[in-house]
Amino acid sequence: MDCIILAIESSCDETSASVLHNGKILSNVVASQEVHHQYGGVVPELASRAHQQNIVPVVSESLKNANINKKQLNAVAFTRGPGLLGALLVGTSFAKSFALALNIPLIEVNHMEAHVLAHFIDEPKPTFPFLCLTVSGGHTQIVLVKSALDMEVIGETQDDAVGEAFDKTAKLMGLPYPGGPLVDKYAKEGNPLAYTFPATEMPGLNYSFSGIKTAFMYFLRDQLKANPRFVEENTDDICASIQHTLVKMLLQKVKKAVSETGIRQVAIAGGVSANSGLRQALAEEAKKRNWEVFIPRFEYCTDNAAMIAMAAYFKYEAGRFTHQMVSPLARMPIGV
Amino acid sequence: MIWENVRQEELATVAREVLAKAKGHTVWLLEGEMGAGKTTFIKALCQELKVKDAVSSPSYALVNQYLSEDGEEIYHFDFYRIKDAWEAQEIGTEEYLASGNLCLIEWSERIAPLLPTDVLTVYITISSDTTRTIRVDFP
């Protein structure tokens, strides 16, 4: 039987809607100036009210791009959490009303699980079980993916997310926010071994990135004392070195996770998977250690509704629906 | 009150003393430059409040919610990436602040117009690479 799902994502900054047909993504619309322009007005940068303004145009655009009439939908899915409560409320309320009006089932999705399941949108797809390193401005975790509906976080950051470590070291260098992509850009021209920073050792598979931020701050302070133009003169080398250290920290625990679980399929997800240093280092490790590596297309790495639709499709097939009394959850651990 | 040259392992003691003196004050501002240890001090406070959730920096999420042992919600804010108070208002900051639950706020200067007058402020300054000076102004 045909299965057409409309999915909505509104957990943080992005308002997004996607239509999926039998496991294939037909459309994935993320609120942007361009979409909003057609309906007049501008997109406020960060607000639940922005989600309220965006949600109807984004859903309409998504149905239109998929060439699907809302009467054809078999289910409506939404991000229940984790995220910003005010933002999640918009998507949740919209999805509930939509499902109620169309008298179709409602599916709740965990945003972090959806990042992992984004790997099933395009070929090549991993097979279960696999490991997924989810890295973004808000998260850093290693997930053991036993099946689409059974995941376990086996390691995660105890303080800052790695994306934040990139952004904050960039800020200390005077680069604009978010500086992560700029660090990546300058790093390409620099020497990754020019400077060394003390990587924080954490027990098990957990991470800590706040120590390296502080160490980096002391490093800059001392260097600037000797040479006030230190950052300007050495931007490329500093960026390459800090990126090298952060990527090394990420991969060290992935290697450990592989050896502990014996699983050789390694996936990465989240916005930081766009980082070229991480991609390159992962590809090198994979070659050396005979891993199979999976990296989704960039549009499915950052927050988007296509991954919500994909996660919802697995739940639809398993008959896992939710009810009209559901409310969003700011805290929502994986696998609960 | 002021604690000078606090080492990381002494943070728990400072957190306990501040919490004991701060009874009833729910809006706390954490002031200090990047790397001073605002999030680290919040971790120590949450440990004293027997929070089981991982306490992490909400720079991206803007607000993290934790559950204390007594079932009280604690809100941990970081307004580092917002541009002005209007944006903070849009995410319901005033509702959080008026909730009566403990609100621990980093980079609060961007939301100054939304803050109540009876705030407790924790100033953290770097005294050496391994120590910090912590000053607390009670309302």
From TrEMBL, chain A:
Co-factor: note: Binds 1 Fe(2+) ion per subunit.
Residues where Fe cation binds: 111, 115, 303
Cofactor section: Fe(2+)
Location(s) in or outside the cell: Cytoplasm
Pfam family, one: TsaD
Catalyzed reaction equations: L-threonylcarbamoyladenylate + adenosine(37) in tRNA = N(6)-L-threonylcarbamoyladenosine(37) in tRNA + AMP + H(+)
Residues bound to substrate: 134-138, 167, 180, 184, 275
Molecular function as annotated in GO: tRNA N(6)-L-threonylcarbamoyladenine synthase activity
Record flagged with keyword Cell membrane: no
Keyword check for Transferase: yes
Enzyme Commission identifier(s): 2.3.1.234
Residue stretches making up the Gcp-like domain: 24-309
Keywords: Acyltransferase, Cytoplasm, Iron, Metal-binding, Transferase, tRNA processing
NCBIfam families given in the database record: gcp_kae1, T6A_TsaD_YgjD
Function, as annotated: Required for the formation of a threonylcarbamoyl group on adenosine at position 37 (t(6)A37) in tRNAs that read codons beginning with adenine. Is involved in the transfer of the threonylcarbamoyl moiety of threonylcarbamoyl-AMP (TC-AMP) to the N6 group of A37, together with TsaE and TsaB. TsaD likely plays a direct catalytic role in this reaction.
Family of this protein: Belongs to the KAE1 / TsaD family.
PANTHER family xref list: TRNA N6-ADENOSINE THREONYLCARBAMOYLTRANSFERASE, TRNA N6-ADENOSINE THREONYLCARBAMOYLTRANSFERASE, MITOCHONDRIAL
UniProt name for this protein: tRNA N6-adenosine threonylcarbamoyltransferase
Organism: Shiella aurantiaca
From TrEMBL, chain B:
Localization (cell): Cytoplasm
Keywords assigned: ATP-binding, Cytoplasm, Magnesium, Metal-binding, Nucleotide-binding, tRNA processing
InterPro entries associated with the record: P-loop_NTPase, T6A_TsaE
Family per record: Belongs to the TsaE family.
The name this protein goes by in its record: tRNA threonylcarbamoyladenosine biosynthesis protein TsaE
Organism in which the protein naturally occurs: Shiella aurantiaca
